Amino acid sequence: MKKWLRLGFGGTFVVLGVNHFINAPFYVAIMPPYLPLHWELVYVSGLLEILFGAMLALNLKPRLAAWGLVALLIAIFPANIHMALNPQFYPNIAAWLLYARLPFQFLFIGIAYWFTRAE
């Protein structure tokens, strides 16, 4: 089962990373204003999601990939908090949904951490 979860979890990050390039303006819009280089950070985070997701899904250095995803999920959490605290900037997303998704970040970090453990 862990193999299939690893494949699905990693594959999801590949898809999300590709979306950073397809829908970059959306990701730039959710960047907290105190961070510099919004476009560059969107592209770098997308590239890292693709890289770490593919590594995990394909079982290529999965522990390294999982640690990379843990770090990335922690690094992007401020953008999720920014969205929840500023729902007026995201009128197409229900405010309650912006808050409801915050705990899922911890779940995703926990799953990624699980993959850092030896099989």
Question: Summary?
Answer:
The protein is mainly α. It contains 6 helices and no strands.
Number of strands: 0
Please give the largest β-sheet.
none
Q: Which regions contain 5 or more consecutive residues with pLDDT less than 50?
A: none
Number of domains: 1
- How far is it from the N-terminal to the C-terminal residue, by CA? 12 Å
Round the mean pLDDT to the nearest integer and report it: 95
Number of helices: 6
Q: What share of residues is helical?
A: over 70%
Structure class = mainly alpha
Amount of beta strand: under 5%
Instruction: From the alpha carbons, calculate the radius of gyration and give it in angstroms.
Output: 15 Å
Shape: globular
One letter per element, helices H and strands E, the order comes to HHHHHH
Please, could you describe this protein's structure?
α3 (38-57) packs antiparallel against α4 (62-85). The chain has one domain (2-114). It has helices spanning 2-22, 24-29, 38-57, 62-85, 95-100, 102-114. The protein has 119 residues and is mainly alpha-helical. It has six helices and no strands. The radius of gyration is 15 Å and the shape is globular.
